[in-house]
Structures are given as structure tokens and as C-alpha cells.
Amino acid sequence: MSPHPHLPLRAVLFDMDGTLVDTERLWWEAVEQTARRPLTEADRPEVLGRAVEHTAAWLAAATGADAAALAAELDGEFARRVRAGTVPRPGALDLLDALARAGVPTALVTASSRAVADTVLDVLGRDRFAVSVTADDTGRTKPAPDPYLAACRALGVPPAACVAVEDTETGVASAEAAGCAVLAVPSLAPIAAAPGRTVRDSLAGVTPEELAGLVGPELRVMSWNLWLGGAMVDDHRAKQVKAVLEAEADVVGLQETAGTAARELAEALGWHHHRAGENLGIISRHPIRATLGDPEVGFYGAAGARIAVGAREVDVWTAHLHYTPYGPYEAAFDGLPAAELDAHEGVRLAQLRDALERIAATADDGVPVVLVGDFNAPSHLDRTDAGWPVSRAAEEAGLRDSFREAHPDPAAEPGVTWSPVHPVHEDGSGRTEPQDRIDYVLHRGLGVVDSRTLVRGTPRPWPQVAGNEWPSDHAAVITTFVVPRK
Question: Mind telling me the catalytic residues?
């Protein structure tokens, strides 16, 4: 089975000053006029790509003048120059027209004020842009990611599937922090190439196809607890294969494999696999370059594999943490306070920290990391009744929760994974089973396009599960990533 292709280019987000129009020079002149002195190389970080308010505050600190008055003067000087001499940069209009013909939406994302942006939009043509975001539209402007994130929200597109076009280090930092691929076209100061960043001298000759090539390949990662290998459900292996195919997964981190599931699923799919101990496994349509961690790990623990995704490599780890004592039961049935709930997470916390140490020991610079698994613990991003230290420890280690990146509001999108077959507690008491998100796809160094849970069909509740189409007591979690280009 062939790997997934590059994601389609969903939008192109353009900086304005110095990128689309030759206004960085005008801004430089406006700052010199307001400062009453020539600017030097040392002044560039406080001027290029900066909002009026930032540069005004910098001038105020140096001169003792009132920052608000300086901001008004800067705005006026710059606006006057823009109205008198706005000139599109070479290739800018041709690229905008080509993107329009290709059906790729565009946005204007600038640190200038709305008044200045509107003047430039009149020159470029407002109909060329679906969205415009200015310094007046977000609480923070560049180099914070807020402007690019706001543009992506307005367009309804994930940042990882977008290219931002910038001319300054400040703007590049903003776009990269938002998760966009970047085409840098320096105007007044050089910009170095970097992973996920391409540098060109000019927009002349840039095509939509070239921009689409800047968006890295897709990697769809699935976390799935197979429930004792699937043995509780009839014809479970065939149903597992169907589920993986429906998910269109590239890599699946497995828990409760009953020893043979990783190999048997990989053989059925024509994939690569790594078996670790009697409980963990990884299957991948991409080649596995190396196995990571203890190959004889016990029932609980973590194991990983380094996977080749085109020209890049990604470390994918799968983990299974101990199921007892189970915090949601202790909260719902026993009424334990937060301090006791957190104290009872000690075994899982130790297991996760061991996994994090193993990940750190095998990590290489520039190689993204994915950690999936059944943590048997809720997330602090979902519940506030305790600290839930397991998910916090992963976050403190630099791993991001891909599902909550895609769905920040737990009330709107709870993402429950436990349990599709346990609506009531299995002790016969009739008590409602706590429904929680305890399975995760965490990452470092990738862009999140989407994340979702998967359950096929409508599973019958325990114990009438043998005929279920879904061969597990957990929902799976599937996240689509973009792997940044080198």
C-alpha cells in the first residue's frame, strides 16, 4: 500500500509590507522621520515587521517622548507614504491571480493598522483576498502566532496545510509559531533557510504548484487498544483490518495485542511491524528504520519505532499504563477529593515518566516524535476536578495533545474513548459508567490537520459483544499530521 501524498494546499497567507507591496522601505523612512535620525542595522529588530505600537514604545524608551503620540505620528507618516507610492513587489499580482485560478483562497495578514491595510487593499484589489487580518484585529500581533491563527480560523483551514509568505524574521516567527509552512522573500534583511521554511529572492515565477510542494507529506497516526487482542469479538482480526482501512491510517500504535496482533495485522495489510513484548506493537505502511525501547517490555510500558516518511523520519511510540486504581471511578463512585485522586496516579505517572525518559534517550534533533496510547487516565485539558498529573507530565515534556489542538473545547468535542461497550458499570449495580478520553495521540514537531475518534457501527453493550462490528472496548483516536519538510 502506497503512502499518503502531500496534503492539498488549503490556503496561502500573505504578509503585506515588503512582501506584496514595497512598503518596508516606506515604513523605514517613516520611522526615520519620526525618530529624527537615520536608522542603522542595529535598529532593524525593532522596526522590520513590527507593529506601530511596538516601534513607538521602542522610540519612547529611547527618547522619553510619549508613546501614544509617537504611534500617531508613525501611523500618519507611513499612511501618507503608502497613499503616495504603493507599488506591488515583482511577481506578487501574478501569483495572486494564479492562486485565484487554482481555487486556492488567500488572506492578507499584516502587522499594520486597518487604515493602512485598507489603503493597500485598494491598490491590490480587495477581491483578491478572502480574509484580511491587521494589528487592530488580534490582541497580539507578530511575532506572536495570533494573526496567522486568526486568518486560518476565518478561512476554516488548518495552519499545517497552509503556506505563509513573509519578508521579515518577525513575520516568519509568527507564521512558524502558528504551524504554517513558510516561503520567505526577504526585503531589507536576510532570512536563513530552516526546516519547513523556503527562501526565495523574489515572488517572480513562484507558482501555486511550488507553494503546494512546501506543505509536507501527510502522516495519519492511530492509537488503538485491541482489547485482549480482539478475542472478545467474533472474526476480530478481519474486523480490525477493516477498521484500519476505514481510518486510512499510515501508522497504528497498538495496545493489548495478545502477542501476535501486530504481525498478523501487518501481514494482512502488507505493512511493516514491530512487536514489543506480549502487549505492544506498531504497524506501519511506511518502512520501519529502527526499533526503539525494550523489545521485551512488559504488559505495561512503552515501545517505539523510527519510521521513514519520504525523506523524513518520525519516532512513533505506543504506551499502555496501568488500569488501577482508576481515577474516574474513584471520583464518581467513591467521591475522593482532588489530592487523593492525584496521589493515586502515582503508578501511571511513574510508567509515563519511564516512557518519556526512553523517548528522550533515543530522540535525535530534527526528528518529530509521536506518543500514542491507552493511559487509563483522563486529561487535565478535559477535567478540572483534579490535577490529572499523567497528562500534565507529557505536556511538561513538550508533547502536545493533538486531539485538543484540533478540538480545544472539551464540552463541544469530548472525544470519549472509554467506553463504547460500557454504558453502565459492569459490576451489576446499574451505575452509569464514567465516559472519559483516556486514549491519546501526542506529538512534538508535527503540524496537526485534524483529529477524531473512531468506532465502527453501533456496538452492543457488554456482555453481548461477540457480534459487534467494532472489536474493542475503546474508541480509536486518529490524528492527521503534516510532517514538515527538511
Answer: 15, 17
